[in-house]
């Protein structure tokens, strides 16, 4: 796991998740625990609005061990929705890769009615997004060109307004429980905006809850009806879901979950656990071809998820197909350097397990050359040298591991362990 910190403007604000309700006595008895962080908050200066704006960012779990770009969710009313949105995005990505892993960017309010009400205020805030927030995100993070704007309630009306007036800013718009009955000028914006939205390929996802007030439900239904009445060839991509059992407060999370599953319905590759199941999916070539197709569809490069490639490598290694595993490592060393190192390391230990000691020494030496800053590659090579009966070479490799760990800032968490091995050698 990389220890690289993420860049940004202003100070870091750690957002803590959750607390367990316990008695005062049990609290005092507990040792300090490891903090669990949701994301970080940054402050950027908006020249458009002449004010500071906070931007909260939650990164995907794999961000620190890859070099790939990730789609970005932009959340309106960010302070209210960051927790459930980041959890939803991570859950769906982890659930056998139902969607791509995503960066979640939450935008807290300073003056909600000014910024989100369709009209001049919304137009100004769209400039903030276009000229300040989106460029800031793309300068500081590996953001793919796939962008989704998510708005609930008044934020949903803003999403509709942006879809009709600045559709090129985002690829998809989620408008949950939008009070569009209060949207002055909606009919005129529809006449002008739908053609442009269709031309740039933007998609609009409308949702409403069964138990919302009648005016809100009628307004969303009327808007959905307007899209329904359009000629299929001229209408932009859109969908409408009346969410049974939901009310105004509950539609936000359910809407995002629904939209992500809907938008990325074809993202998931068939699950496999062994060689036979992998073969039935078309093997590694089938996996790569699938993600090449979805990359073309969504307009950004998306290699197979590293967890799937790790499964393929494990299948190869268990079958003794070491060369195939090493070729996989070589193919993805740029996108997934941590995975690439780990795969070769696993090959080396499997060779040791099979009694192929000379091959293991060569494999671990290869990893040392590929990842000279990693303490683990030297430690593994030391294990192979010791297995081969070369105690001097083993000790040198363990010493190299300790030196590489000591160079880390902050120090490598296993520095003491590496030093102990360097002291003991093969003994």
Give a structural overview.
The chain is α/β, with parallel strands linked by helices. The protein has 2 domains: about 240 residues, 3-Layer(aba) Sandwich (Rossmann fold); about 150 residues, Serine Threonine Protein Phosphatase 5, Tetratricopeptide repeat (Alpha Horseshoe). It contains 17 helices and 9 strands. Strands 1-2-3-5-4-6-7-8-9 form a 9-stranded mixed beta sheet, sandwiched between helices. Helix 2 packs across helix 8 and helix 5 crosses helix 6. The protein is elongated. The protein starts with 13 loop residues before the first strand and ends with a helix. The relative contact order is 0.08.
Annotation keywords:
Rossmann fold; 427 residues; nine-stranded mixed sheet; 9 strands; 2 domains; disordered N terminus; Serine Threonine Protein Phosphatase 5, Tetratricopeptide repeat; alpha/beta
Mean pLDDT: 93
Low-confidence stretches: 1-27
Give the SSE string. EHEEEHEHHEHEHEHEHHHHHHHHHH
Radius of gyration: 26 Å
Which class of secondary structure composition applies to the elements?
A: alpha/beta
Tally of separate helices? 17
Q: Supply the number of structural domains.
A: 2
Supply the CATH class of the largest domain.
Answer: Alpha Beta
Q: What composes the largest sheet?
A: 9 strands, mixed
Query: At CATH's second level, what is the architecture of the largest domain?
Result: 3-Layer(aba) Sandwich
List the helices and strands and how they pair.
Elements: E1 14-16, H1 24-29, E2 37-46, E3 51-58, E4 70-75, H2 78-94, E5 103-106, H3 112-116, H4 120-140, E6 143-152, H5 154-165, E7 172-176, H6 186-200, E8 203-209, H7 214-228, E9 237-243, H8 251-263, H9 275-280, H10 283-298, H11 306-318, H12 322-331, H13 337-353, H14 357-370, H15 375-387, H16 391-406, H17 415-424
Parallel strand pairs: 4-5, 4-6, 6-7, 7-8, 8-9
Antiparallel strand pairs: 1-2, 2-3, 3-5
């Amino acid at each position: 796991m990389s220890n690289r910190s993420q860049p940004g403007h202003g100070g870091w604000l750690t957002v803590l998740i959750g607390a367990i309700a316990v008695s005062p006595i049990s609290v005092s008895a507990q040792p300090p625990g490891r903090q669990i962080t949701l994301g970080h908050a940054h402050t950027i200066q908006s020249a458009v609005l002449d004010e500071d704006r906070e931007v909260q960012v939650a990164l995907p779990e794999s961000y620190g061990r890859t070099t790939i770009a990730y789609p970005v969710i932009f959340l309106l009313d960010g302070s209210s929705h960051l927790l459930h949105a980041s959890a939803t995005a991570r859950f769906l990505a982890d659930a056998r890769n139902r969607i791509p892993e995503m960066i979640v960017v939450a935008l807290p309010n300073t003056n909600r009615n000014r910024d989100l009400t369709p009209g001049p205020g919304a137009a100004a805030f769209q400039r903030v997004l276009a000229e300040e927030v989106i460029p800031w995100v793309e300068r500081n993070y590996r953001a793919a060109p796939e962008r989704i704007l998510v708005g609930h309630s008044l934020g949903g009306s803003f999403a509709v307004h942006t879809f009709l007036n600045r559709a090129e800013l985002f690829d998809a718009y989620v408008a949950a429980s939008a009070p569009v009955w209060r949207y002055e000028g909606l009919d005129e914006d529809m006449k002008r905006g739908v053609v442009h939205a269709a031309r740039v390929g933007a998609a609009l996802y409308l949702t409403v809850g069964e138990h919302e007030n009648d005016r809100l439900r009628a307004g969303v239904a009327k808007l959905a009806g307007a899209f329904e009445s359009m000629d299929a060839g001229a209408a932009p991509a859109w969908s409408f879901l009346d969410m049974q059992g939901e009310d105004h407060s509950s539609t936000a999370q359910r809407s995002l979950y629904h939209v992500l599953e809907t938008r990325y319905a074809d993202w998931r590759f068939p699950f496999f656990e062994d060689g036979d199941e992998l073969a039935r999916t078309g093997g590694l070539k089938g996996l790569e071809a699938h993600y090449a197709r979805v990359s073309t569809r969504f307009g950004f490069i998306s290699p197979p998820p590293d967890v799937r490639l790790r499964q393929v490598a494990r299948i190869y290694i268990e079958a003794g197909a070491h060369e195939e595993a090493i070729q996989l490592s070589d193919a993805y060393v740029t996108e997934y350097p941590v995975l690439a190192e780990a795969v070769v390391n696993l090959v080396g230990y499997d060779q040791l397990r099979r009694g192929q000691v000379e091959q293991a020494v060569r494999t671990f030496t290869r990893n040392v050359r590929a990842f000279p800053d990693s303490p683990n590659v030297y430690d593994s090579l030391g294990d192979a040298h010791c297995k081969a009966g070369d105690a001097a070479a083993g000790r040198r490799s363990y010493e190299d591991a300790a030196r590489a760990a000591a160079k880390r800032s902050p120090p490598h968490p296993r520095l003491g362990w590496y030093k102990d091995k360097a002291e003991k050698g093969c003994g």
